[in-house]
Amino acid sequence: MAVVIAPSMASTKENTGALPKRRLTKEELTKTHKTHLKKQDNSPHAPRPVKQPVMADAYPASSKSIRELEIIPLTELHAGAHHRGKGLVVKAISAPFVGAGAVSIVEDEFGNADKLAIYNQADSSILSGVPEGCVVAIKEPYYKNNGAQDDFMICVDHPSDVILLRFTDPIIPESLRLGPLLKTAEDWKNAADRAFIEKDFPTSVFCYTEALEVSDDAAFQAPIYTKRSGVNLILGRYDAAKADALASRTGGPQEWKAYYNAGRAAYGLCNYTTSHTLLTTALSLNPTHSGIKKEHARCTARLHEESTGEYDFPAMQASLTPQSVHLDRGSFLANTRVGESPRHGRGLFATRALRAGDLVFAEKATLMPNQYEPARASAALYALMVRQLCDNPSLAGPVLRLFDGGYERGGGEGGLVDGVPVVDVFLVEAIRTRNCFSAPRSTLENTRPSVPEGRQCKGLWVHASYMNHDCVANTMRSFVGDMLVSRATRDIEEGEELFQQYVPVKPLPDVRNKQFKDGWGFECGCTLCAAERRSPEAMQAKRKELLVAVEKLCSKKMPGRELIPDAKIRSVDKLTRQLEEAHEKDVYEGVPRLTLIYPSNWLVAAHRGRKNHGKVVKHAMKVLRNFGFKVPDESEVWDPREIYTKSGNATLMTVHIVATLRTLGEAYEALGHKEMASKCVEAAEFGYRLVTGSENELKTLDR
Ligand SMILES: C[S@@+](CC[C@H](N)C(=O)[O-])C[C@H]1O[C@@H](n2cnc3c(N)ncnc32)[C@H](O)[C@@H]1O
């Protein structure tokens, strides 16, 4: 039989496509496997590294049914090849070794044995631990050398490329058949109940499924559907839980249960409109049931949030704990819509005029693991994405529509084949890298100087992902647990495209654009980047040189309360003025001067330490100007509260604006300008709401 080697797979390093000269025998394989099993750490704390796919070796998931494939024996597997159009039917003849994946020894109908490694199975899947004796079909298998001579294995990366076969499946050859382990539907139901009691939920679902297949008695099936629905709810397989709940309807007195479970499942999917309809029906059938009343009220509250954008932010903040970061809240998206963007592909647009400070949208994470260890955050999100796409196929639509950076899709992703959703893990990773956000547990907490930096998790917010980047963005995001809160940094017109900063922008244009190019594959065309591109290279080099010099002089450290010698302040001031002069008027008119932010901030802090209040005012105004805000000469009368609305369209909002306005207020107060001082505080409070997403006291910044 000829083996098809997919030509697109040339990237796999050992892609020789040759039949191995020798394979390990069944005895050799089993012996080594047993020694691995003995060493296996089965404790719940044993490390289970999540494998992240390497994009260079990407290959598409099979979207063919196993029934369309030519079943081949293990001896026809070619090293380094993807066997397109072929399939395997094999039985696990060993307990699995569970590490980054589940490794088992498998046997085909001719008694040939080989090693099978299955990656990326969710722990809700029975295949995360391939039970010994089970028969699986592997679609379009990838066979690879495992590093050592003669050591090969069948490597399953895409969870949908392996299917657990029912014991009675006619595709299983005679010699691999065990015959059904259990005969009657009642036996299967009892086995399922036992597995449930032992908390082996995937096995419980498997056995209930067998019971449903064996029996065709609707009266027997209805309670089994109800039970399977309950187990699926526990497993977070909400699509299946909802379908089971609705399938359990008989019109009898227990009908309310079907609507109750289906309503809870829809709630789990954050589909509150459907959930509300189902729970309303459940309530009409059982008006006094306290559980239904509670769920119904909860769902009504979510719908209210979705339609009004009214949130109790202090309560949300207060509910956060290290264990609990997923908030029970609806997403308010009505002010925005997805549309074609002149900047790139699709973007997000305002559906109505918004004022500076307004809530643009608030979105609950589509997927966000509670994993704030930076080294693990990416792998945790990747694993969650794979798991949820397997467990809840309805997620595939919204997630797979996201930008994938041009990944070559096979075409069948997200669709159901052989009863399972086709999940391409390389596509998942391509989408993850371009669309995920880093999020602290709470942006408010993060503004505290006492909170160590860097504890961020990674999550996916599907709606927010449509926003393109702009260095001088008109929105700003913050986080309360898994809620992303987006506010307008200035007035926005109806129909205007909404932008966010993907990451805090670096002062030097070539440095920040390299970051965008490497991370997201684009060069920024925002007002600031476009302006700076007009500046000759010699001027760019000069600014860079001066920035390096001034940072060196300041020892890259902001002054605290210590007294900085006058001479040093004068030197920094002098260099800063030179840097200021190196900003051409025609280029920088109305846009931020990012290289000046650090030195002007330093001068504010240094003069503050020496109680030079007049100088603090002067340099604080410069800080605001350097962030792109319109401020007059220090002598003119002005209203700091107006900076958000009267500064044009190229301002850059950060927590430094809040701190600067506060310091400015302090200086005005010390100089006896009480009215100006209180206006500065008001402006700082307004800015703090933009930064943290909600009304918060400025004194948080001191703790
Ligand atoms: C999260 S997606 C944003 C939505 C995307 N425009 C779409 O069509 O789905 C991120 C990708 O959008 C593109 N992008 C974002 N901001 C951009 C900008 N300012 N200029 C050009 N491309 C941009 C980049 O290709 C980036 O990898």
From TrEMBL:
User: According to the lineage, what is the superkingdom?
Assistant: Eukaryota
Provide the residue span(s) of the region labelled Disordered.
Answer: 24-55
For the SET domain, which residue ranges apply? 334-503
Enumerate the InterPro entries for this protein: Gramillin-biosynth_MTr, SET_dom, SET_dom_sf, TPR-like_helical_dom_sf
Q: What is this protein called?
A: SET domain-containing protein
